[in-house]
Amino acid sequence: MNLQKELKEKYYTKMPYQSIADKYETTYNYVIDIAAGNRKAIRGKALEIKKELERIVKGTEEVEVETTLDNYYTDDVRLAETEQEEYELLCKQVN
């Protein structure tokens, strides 16, 4: 029985709505209704779920939007001997 439980925990990943529903001891459909705006989250458990969903969305947006020139600095660019060579390698990476 323990082996079955371990395999389930290792290979079965829950979707975000399912994990939030388990965390707040509610149903999956209730969380979906709050996320879709079908149910108003004014107070209590619904408001906590809404804040949790907003926190998750903000966390993923920050990761997706973050694109800087540092992302293009590969080992070739870092090991360039002159600034001109570094500039040329960097231009090739960007284009």
Total domains = 1
SSE topology string: HHHHHH
Q: What sort of overall outline do the alpha carbons produce when their principal axes are compared?
A: elongated
Radius of gyration: 23 Å
The number of distinct β-strands equals 0
Largest sheet report? none
Helix content: 55-70%
Percent range for β-strand residues: under 5%
Structural class: mainly alpha
Number of helices: 6
Q: Averaged pLDDT, please?
A: 76
- What is the terminal-to-terminal distance? 56 Å
Low-confidence stretches: none
Structural description of this entry:
This protein has 95 residues and is mainly alpha-helical. The protein has one domain. It is 68% helix and 0% strand. The radius of gyration is 23 Å and the shape is elongated. It starts with a helix and ends with a helix. The mean pLDDT is 76.
Which key phrases capture this entry?
elongated, mainly alpha, 95 residues
Topology of helices and strands:
Layout: H1 2-11, H2 16-23, H3 28-36, H4 44-65, H5 75-78, H6 83-94
Helix pairs in contact: 2-3
Structure summary:
The chain has one domain (2-68).
